[in-house]
TrEMBL record:
Belongs to the glycerophosphoryl diester phosphodiesterase family. It is a multi-pass membrane protein. Keywords: Glycoprotein, Hydrolase, Membrane, Transmembrane, Transmembrane helix. This is GDPD5 protein. GO terms for molecular function: glycerophosphodiester phosphodiesterase activity. The chain crosses the membrane at residues 49-68, 88-119, 131-152, 164-186, 198-219. It holds the Pfam family GDPD. GO terms for cellular component: membrane. It is found in: Membrane. Its main location: membrane. Signal peptide: none annotated. It comes from the Eukaryota. It comes from Atlantisia rogersi (Inaccessible Island rail). Residues 233-492 form the GP-PDE domain.
Length: 524
């Protein structure tokens, strides 16, 4: 018996050596110390540092989850940095990679620590890992603080994501508690006092009970009875199809039409000589070759150029060079050649294209700057183009601009009046509003249903990720503005859709299985 125990201990030493070596850089057996029954698992200094390790893990996990769910808005983040730095780079992707690496590193350290505790070894984290832990903790807290200040709406995205991921996060949390039951049980058994055992086991059981009961307060519009799901939301191409072609160009809108988009969204600016054209930014620097043609005018407002100047600019080569989206696929040779030859697009041409394909149009209309000839007649000039030059059927126009709305209704009663913010139903009906155009962070199933009862539909922008589109679908949204028409068009039903009965079975089976496994671990 003694020989067998010695042999088992000898055979186990390489495993412990690896754990201690990676965690403490103590590869030799004489460098390690076992935890005596009833004693603390590590010295006072290490006891104080272990919560920092756990804290670094928690903060890095929160940041990784938050930034992973923010993928829908990576293009906005990169565009913000472009405005401040003056050059385009996929900073969002770099930040995601760094967050994933740091989380993986700190998770491995925590797993090593739990394994050493389970083997009854004293903890001693090497000084290099302590520095690494401080770096992860500092980076995660700093990044969360900066993003909260500059981009606080992203926490609304996180809250929305819980409506989709909560059932699966619940299963993951229960699984972690099952894995933690082994070191908790070992330390409880080794404790020589009942009070110490209660201190170890009590918080663990309290957290476990809390996790078991969380589903009672969980809500997701995608957990619903069969047959209650509404129609799939219509897809409106945001500046066309900017993942497949240069934004706000003819090619971009043609790509949206090719992939079955139901509408087209754009941004309208008026040139110095009164020609409405499509441009999102206030300058031409990002989406044209103005830097090559007129290097001294790169900072000038786009509305201060004449149409003769604008129409000579190239509006496509930047797309192939900068690659504005990290998830862009490779373009065919024909698409590359077509993209390289795109020019600034006139509003009248855009409207004729939409009318010929029977597509809805919605656009942000930018007022020209001070001293612009059309500063005070910008809406009138835009209406002239829509009504007299384009020939588009009025019911295809979703009129969003709120200034002079009464005048617009009198001149073009066929427009679908659209509001860009929430308001009481009575006020919307008084202004003949038939559609709301809202940021997706304002998504609310209750509000959407309330407006729908008054025949006011809801469009959300900008929805790119399948999980977010699924949530919008389940919430009853009528349409979404998206950069990814080609992706979302292929979804035949919402992701994560399940009935309440299916979810209850998943919840109960998870809890029962975990109770059985934890009971066996404590019994053994």
């Amino acid at each position: 018996v003694v020989r067998r125990h010695l042999l088992q201990r000898y055979e186990h030493q390489p495993f412990i050596s690896c754990l201690a070596g990676f965690y403490s850089c103590r590869w030799k057996r004489y460098q390690r110390r076992r935890t005596e029954p009833g004693k603390c698992c590590c010295k006072t200094r290490e006891c104080m540092f272990f919560p920092l390790l756990v804290g670094a893990f928690c903060f890095s996990l929160i940041f990784l989850y938050m930034w992973g769910e923010a993928k829908n808005d990576y293009n906005n983040f990169d565009w913000y940095n472009y405005g401040n730095l003056g050059f385009w780079f996929l900073w969002s992707l770099v930040l995601l990679i760094v967050a994933a690496i740091l989380f993986t590193y700190i998770t491995l350290l925590l797993v090593l620590a739990m394994c050493l505790l389970a083997e009854g070894q004293q903890l001693y984290l090497h000084w290099s890992h302590k520095i690494g832990t401080f770096l992860v903790l500092g980076f995660s807290i700093t990044a969360l603080f900066i993003l909260s200040v500059l981009w606080g709406d992203q926490w609304k995205t996180v809250r929305l994501s819980f409506q989709i991921t909560a059932p699966y996060l619940h299963i993951g949390a229960i699984s972690i508690m099952v894995l933690l039951s082994w070191p908790v049980a070992l330390h409880a058994i080794r404790a020589d006092k009942k009070v110490v055992q209660m201190i170890i086991v009590g918080p663990y059981l309290a957290i476990l009970l809390f996790l078991f009961l969380i589903p009672l307060g969980m809500y997701s519009p995608c957990i619903r009875e069969m047959g209650t799901l509404g129609p799939k939301p219509a897809l409106i191409g945001h500046r066309g199809a900017p993942m497949l072609a240069p934004e706000n160009t003819e090619m971009s809108f043609q790509k949206t039409i090719e992939h079955g988009g139901d509408g087209l969204e754009t941004d309208v600016t008026i040139s110095y000589d009164g020609v409405p054209f499509l441009m999102h930014d206030s300058t031409l620097r990002r989406t044209t070759n103005i830097n090559e043609v007129y290097p001294n005018d790169t900072a000038q407002n786009a509305a201060l150029f004449s149409w003769d100047t604008l129409k000579e600019l190239n509006a496509g080569t930047w797309f192939l060079k900068d690659k504005p989206f990290s998830c862009m696929g490779s373009l065919s040779r024909a698409d590359q050649n077509q993209a390289m030859n795109q020019s600034v697009y006139k509003l009248s041409h855009f409207l004729r294209l939409a009318d010929s394909q029977n597509k809805l149009v919605i656009f942000d209309l930018y007022r020209p700057p001070e001293k612009h000839p059309y500063r005070n007649s910008w809406i009138n000039r835009t209406l002239e183009v829509i009504l007299n030059e384009s020939g588009i059927r009025p019911h295809l126009v979703l009129w969003l601009e709120n200034d002079m709305r009464s005048f617009v209704q009198s001149v073009a009663p066929g427009f679908q009046q659209t509001m860009g913010s929430k308001a009481p139903v009575e006020d919307l009906l008084m202004d003949n509003i038939v559609k709301l155009n809202l940021a997706y962070t304002e998504m609310s199933s209750e509000d959407i249903r309330k407006y729908a009862e008054a025949n006011i539909t809801t469009n959300l922008y900008v929805v790119n990720e399948p999980w977010l589109f699924s949530l919008a679908w389940c919430s009853g949204v009528h349409s979404v503005t998206t950069n990814a028409v080609h992706t979302l068009k292929n979804l035949s039903q919402p992701l994560f859709l399940m009935t309440p009965q299916q979810y209850n079975i998943m919840w109960i089976l998870t809890d029962l299985t975990s109770v059985l496994l934890i009971s066996l671990i404590f019994a053994l």
